[in-house]
Specification:
Distance between the termini: 81 Å
Oligomer: single chain
Strand content: under 5%
Structural class: mainly alpha
Helix content: 40-55%
Shape: extended
Radius of gyration: 24 Å
Length: about 200
């Protein structure tokens, strides 16, 4: 039985070819193959905070959350994108998961947006690694009805920054589209002039 499971796992094709990294051009390494730009958790959290509170990113992030996008998939996209750019290594990326989730929850709390932490398909996993149930429950509690991010998760500077973020139009109200007047197009079947 164990041999059958081993063979099934070994025959999966969703892994890199052995030696694939040795075929990359050493003169032009990918950003994530170089030394990371940030190696400190505190610098990393401030970098992510600046990234998600940028006006354009902030508005699209809050819009997504208000439409039901769960927090943890957003965290994965943000962190993995920065890893691919060479901002930090995989270890720091994993250490930034929890602080990034709390930052996003705090921003949603500010706008009174009800958020979901994860989907049933995720089963408490981030980047294929299971989150401890205790941490997951604390995240769910912070996003729950009481909406209280634990003290100390945001720095004093981040709390001040949050007060200065732009007020967004109510994300929960449906937007009213202006009625457009249709442009009259001539029929393709109509005879052309001169016929």
């Amino acid at each position: 039985m164990d041999e059958q499971i081993y063979m099934e796992q070994a025959s999966k094709m969703d892994r890199p070819v052995p030696g694939q990294s040795l075929t990359n051009d050493p003169e032009n390494p990918a950003p994530f193959e170089q030394a990371p730009q940030i190696t400190n958790v505190h610098e990393g959290t401030q970098f992510i905070w600046d990234k998600i509170t940028d006006d354009e990113a902030y508005e699209s992030l809050m819009t997504g959350l208000s439409q039901g996008v769960p927090v943890m998939p957003v965290v994965q996209v943000i962190l993995f994108n920065e890893f691919q750019k060479g901002t930090f290594n995989p270890d720091l990326m994993m250490m930034l998961v929890e602080p990034t989730a709390y930052m996003i929850i705090a921003l949603a709390e500010r706008l009174d947006i009800d958020v979901e932490i994860d989907t049933e398909e995720d089963e408490g996993e981030v980047f294929g690694v299971s989150i401890k149930e205790e941490k997951l429950n604390k995240l769910r509690e912070a996003a729950g009805p009481m909406k209280k991010v634990p003290e100390g998760m945001l720095t004093d500077e981040q709390l001040r920054d949050m007060q200065n973020l732009p007020e967004l139009p109510s994300l929960l109200e449906p937007t009213v589209k202006k009625e457009e007047t249709p442009i009259e197009q001539p029929s393709l079947m109509a005879p052309t002039e001169g016929q």
